[in-house]
């Protein structure tokens, strides 16, 4: 790799060549230059954060076709704030004592097959997840994992929300779940953190009936890593704002922006809420707004074409390495971006898949390939976060390690 001096050299921290896609632990995606510029501009003036969040709310609402929006410190924080809003609504007393939920409807119903490591975020403000359905999809019984009637049956007076993880394969359809929930006056929270592109998804889940939808600002939108978007119902977003903004001010001069917080609905000034530990700075809010504007204007077809061409180029580069079988996967409807799946035959190559992955990670710069399938002697090479030059470098390093 040609030596480009970076701030990480000054800090003596090794950089990473990312051939595994947008993963938080290796810093997600590269922020758009224009978003970084906007953050620098934002850092030069003071602003009332509630005024800025109100403007962000309008812009997120426009982008998502929701009534309102809010910028959070990540999709995970968006889920925590969504759950907090569903637990407390406009009740200042409940806001002030979360995560203590005694006497509050605090159950979040969730199909078992939607549960994932990030649902801890839903429990953070004190909710309990009630998971339903079965994990059975191997017995050939035609089981659908979770049936709509099971969701309906799980709703009780203790239900605060239904949570839904949006993936191309999740069942039952979101519209069905929203219909059941709304029949019982229960809101639906959707985790759509990584479901962009396509850009249409920004509005799709709201249009299908979701009350609150969480997106990551640091994945395909390429805003600051520590940002997310929550889009949805105006009253619930108002509750989010009350529990997130630092508003603990003298009652006599309390004057929050009227479109974000309606003071008539509140008996007093909200205290520091559960969201106070998930604060978002002006720089992050502005950076996210700028990145979102650019994401909306982007030619997503063109990006996909470039990624898929790069995946083919990677596959061709790896094709003649002894002891390595490669194939392209994805590039279709369910998985828009193609990536290379490589199988190591350790009898013919110099090492096995696990040791290859380990050794690449220890290089300077570190080289990260996808390591989710090592038990099948497979690793993956993803084109999304590589330049063409880095793609060739990754192929060279894999070849050198296996030979
Ligand atoms: C990435 C991801 C999150 C977390 O997003 P952050 O913006 O990093 O907080 C939550 N849920 C799912 C399904 C994700 O893929």
Automatic annotation (TrEMBL):
Tagged with keyword Transferase: yes
Keyword check for Secreted: no
Pfam families: Aminotran_5
Key words, A-Z: Pyridoxal phosphate, Transferase
Listed cofactors: pyridoxal 5'-phosphate
Gene Ontology molecular function: L-seryl-tRNA(Sec) selenium transferase activity
Aminotransferase class V domain: residues covered: 145-240
The protein's name in its UniProt record: L-seryl-tRNA(Ser) seleniumtransferase
Native source species: Natrialba taiwanensis DSM 12281
Lineage of origin: Archaea, Methanobacteriati, Methanobacteriota, Stenosarchaea group, Halobacteria
């Amino acid at each position: 790799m040609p030596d480009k001096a970076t701030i990480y050299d000054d800090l003596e921290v090794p950089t990473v060549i990312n051939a595994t896609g947008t993963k938080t632990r290796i810093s997600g995606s590269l922020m758009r230059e224009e978003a970084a510029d906007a953050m620098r501009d934002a850092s030069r003036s003071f602003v009332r954060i509630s005024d800025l969040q109100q403007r962000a709310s309008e812009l997120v609402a426009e982008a998502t076709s929701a009534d309102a929006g809010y910028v959070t410190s990540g999709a995970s924080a968006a889920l925590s704030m969504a759950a907090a809003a569903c637990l407390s609504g406009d009740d200042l007393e409940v806001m002030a004592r979360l995560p203590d939920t005694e006497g509050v409807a605090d159950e979040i119903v969730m199909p078992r097959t939607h549960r994932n490591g990030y649902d801890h975020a839903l429990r953070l403000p004190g909710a309990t997840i009630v998971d339903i359905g079965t994990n059975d999809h191997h017995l050939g019984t035609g089981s659908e994992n979770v049936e709509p009637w099971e969701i309906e049956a799980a709703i009780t007076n203790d239900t605060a929300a239904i949570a839904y993880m949006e993936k191309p394969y999740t069942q039952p359809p979101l519209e069905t779940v929203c219909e059941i929930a709304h029949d019982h006056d229960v809101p639906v929270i959707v985790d759509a953190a990584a479901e962009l592109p396509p850009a249409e998804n920004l509005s799709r889940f709201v249009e299908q009936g979701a009350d609150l939808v969480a997106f990551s600002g640091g994945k395909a939108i390429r805003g600051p890593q520590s940002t997310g978007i929550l889009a949805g119902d105006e009253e619930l977003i108002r509750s989010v704002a009350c529990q997130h903004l630092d508003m603990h001010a003298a009652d006599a001069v309390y004057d929050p922006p009227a479109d974000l917080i309606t003071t008539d609905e509140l008996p007093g000034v909200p205290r520091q809420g559960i969201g106070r530990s998930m604060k978002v700075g002006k720089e992050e809010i502005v950076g996210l707004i700028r990145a979102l504007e650019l994401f909306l204007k982007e030619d997503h077809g063109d990006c996909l074409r470039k990624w898929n061409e790069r995946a083919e180029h990677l596959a061709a580069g790896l094709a003649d390495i002894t002891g390595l079988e490669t194939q392209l996967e994805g590039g279709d409807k369910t998985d828009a971006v193609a990536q290379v799946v490589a199988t190591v035959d350790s009898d013919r190559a110099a090492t096995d898949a696990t040791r290859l992955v380990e050794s690449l990670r220890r290089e300077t710069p570190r080289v990260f390939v996808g390591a989710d399938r090592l038990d099948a002697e497979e690793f993956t090479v993803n084109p999304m976060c590589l330049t063409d030059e880095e793609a060739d470098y990754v192929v060279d390093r894999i070849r050198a390690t296996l030979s």
